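User: Thanks for the earlier help. One more: Glycogen debranching enzyme. Can you show the sequence and predicted structure together?

Assistant: Of course, both are below.
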Amino acid sequence: MGRELVHSLSSPIHSMHTFSYGAVPQDNGVHFSVYSRSAKAMWLLLYDHVEDLEPSEVIKFNQEYGRLGDIWTAFISGIGPGQLYHFQADGPFQPEIGQRFDKRARLIDPYAKALAGNFQPSPDGIVRPPKCVVVDDQFDWHGDRHVRHHLADTVIYEMHVRGFTNSPTSGVENPGSYLGVIEKIPYLIDLGVTAVELMPVHEFPMNEPDGSFTDHQNYWGYETLAFFAPHRGFATNPEPGAQVREFKEMVRALHEAGIEVIMDVVFNHTAEGNENGPTLSFRGLENQVYYHLDQGGKYYKNYSGCGNAINGNHPVVREMIFHCLRYWTCNYHIDGFRFDLASILSRDRSGNLVPSPPLVEAIAEDPLLADTKLIAEAWDAAGAYQVGSFSHMRWAEWNGRYRDDIRRFWRGDVPTLGDYATRLSGSSDLYQQTGREPFHGVNFITAHDGFTLNDLVSYEHKHNYANREDNQDGENNNISMNFGVEGPTDDPAINGMRERQIKNMLATLFLSQGVPMLLSGDECRRTQRGNNNTYCQDNLISWFDWSLIEKYNGLYRFCKELIHFRLCEPTLRQRKFLTGHSDGVEKLPDISWFNVMGQSVDWKQDTHCLLSILGARHSSRRVRDGSDIMILVNSSPDAQAFELPVGIKPKEWNLTIDTSAQSPLDIFPKRDGATLHPRVSVLPARSLRCYVRRDTRR
C-alpha cells in the first residue's frame, strides 16, 4: 500500500495542532485534522490520480505528537491544492455496542471540501469511495454580498440543478450544470422569482458502491457523502475541485441578478445506510457518535426512512453542522437553507422529540447565520409532525397544512372553506401563537416529492412503475383529481378544466399571505407522467421540457404576471397577521369575509364560495401601502352569483385576475380589466376572480 511515514523532527511531516478540521492548505504543505474518539490508529492515504486504485503514499498519524484529545492532526509538506486523499482508521469492531471500525476501509473526510471520481470496483470487496480533494477556497467574488430580500418579499423557485437544463430542449451550452443555470438566469428574471431553492448540491453518489452504473441513479441527491463539498456531477470541468469554482460562479451570477440561493440540506441521514450498508466515512470514524443507534448499538434508528439517522444533537455532530452552515454562508455566499426532515434535528441523543432542542435553537441564534433564511421541513419519516410548532424562534417552515388544505378546497371537498380562508390569510392558527409572523410559513401546493401541478389535475393515482418497485413507493394520498380521464386526453372540456384548476391554485398561492414557493416547471405544465416519486429518474420524466414554455405560453404569462402582481402589492406581503380591523376612519378593515349574499360567512354552513376583501394598510394619513384587493372563489362544479357587500361600489373595482377566462383576458397586468357588474357578479364553476380598487385620491 505504499510506504508508511512516521512523525519525526527530521521527516517531511510535522505535528501541528489546530481547530480547523479537514484539509487546510498552508505554506509549503497541507494540514489535516480528523475526529475519532475510539480509533487506535489513523492513516492518511495520498493518491496521484483520480483513477488510481491504490494510494501512492500511506502516512500514519503519530499518536504522541499528532493527537490532541480526540483530534488526529498532521502537517504534510510538499503537497497542496488538488491533492487527492482518504483517511483510514483502525479500532474496535463490536457491532453489538455500535463500534464498526474497519481498518481496510478508505474513508471520506467528513470535512472534505470536494470529491473527485466515483466508487471503484475492488478485488478485495472493500468499497473504494470517491477521493477527497484538497481545495483552495480563494475566489474573486467581484464584491458580491448576500442579497438580503426580506422573507415576506421572497418568491421561491424550487429546482434541480441538473434537471433544470439537461433536456435537449434547454438550448444551453452547458446542460445539466451550474453553468447551465447561469445561462437561464434571464428566464428566472422574466418569471420574477427572487430566490432559487436548490435540491441537494452536497456531494452524493453518482454510481453504485461496487463501481457499476445503473439507469436508476440517485437523481434527487438525498444521500449525502460529504456535507462541505458541492456535487461534482453538476460541473462541466472534470478537473478535481473544479466544481467549487463553478458553483461560486453560479451563485455570483444569480446574486448579480438579485436572486438569492437557498440550499436544501440533508442533515438527517447519510449514504452509509443501515447496518448492511457500506462504510464510507462517519461509520468508520466514530459510529457511536454520528448516528442514532438502536438495541445497544447493533442497529440504526431510521427516523429518515433511508436506513439511518444523524445524531444531530450530539455536541460533536452539532459542531460539524455549525461549521458546515457557516462555511456555505461565508465561503459560498449562500442566502439560506431548507432543512430536509428537520424534525430529526429536534430529537435528543436518545431520539426523543424535545422542546427547544439545542441544535435548532443554536442555529437560530448563531450570529454568523443572522442574515440567512432558515426553513424547516417540520416532519420526519418516524411520525413527527411539527408544522406550526417546530420552533418559536426565527425559523420558517414548509407549510404542509397549506398544501393539503388548498388541494382539498379546489377539489371540492367539504368542509374546507374555513381552512381555505385560514391559509389564504397567512395560517395564524399555526404561527401566531408562537410569536411568529405570516412570512414564517412557506406556502406551496407542489414540491419535488409528489405530483407536479399538471399531474395533480390529471391523475387520481400514482404511476410509479418506472421506479421498479411495483408502484409501492411514493405517497398514496395525493388529494388529486383527473376530471374524468386518467392522464393525457384530447377532450377539450377536460383539458380546459384542468388548466383552470392549475390557474386557481397558482392564483391562490400568489394571493396568499406568507411566502410562496413554486415548483420548477409548474408555470408551464411540466409532467412526470403521473410519477409522484421521481427520486431515481434522471431522464425526461424529471427534466424541465423547455418546449412547454411555447406550448403553454398563456399559462406561463399568467404565472409570470401573478408573481409580478404580488411583488408590486404590499397588501399581499404583510409583515403582521391580519386582524379584521381598520387602521382609520372610512378605510376598509385589513380583512373581511362574506358569503354569496354579501353577508358575514357562516363557517359551518357555507361551503364552496367565499368573497374576501383585503384592505390596504396605511403608513401615514395620506399614503397607502398597496391597494384594496377583492378575491372571489367558487370551488363548486356550478356557476354561482355573488352579491356585493353593502358599501362596496362596483365601479371602483377593476378586474385583475379571472381564472375562467382564456389568455390574455385571464390577467390584466395594468389592472385595467372590466369593473364589477353592479351589485351582482356571476362566477363560473371552479374559478377565481380578483379585483383591485382604484385609489381615487391619486
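User: Great, one quick takeaway?

Assistant: Confidence is low (pLDDT under 50) at residues 1-18.
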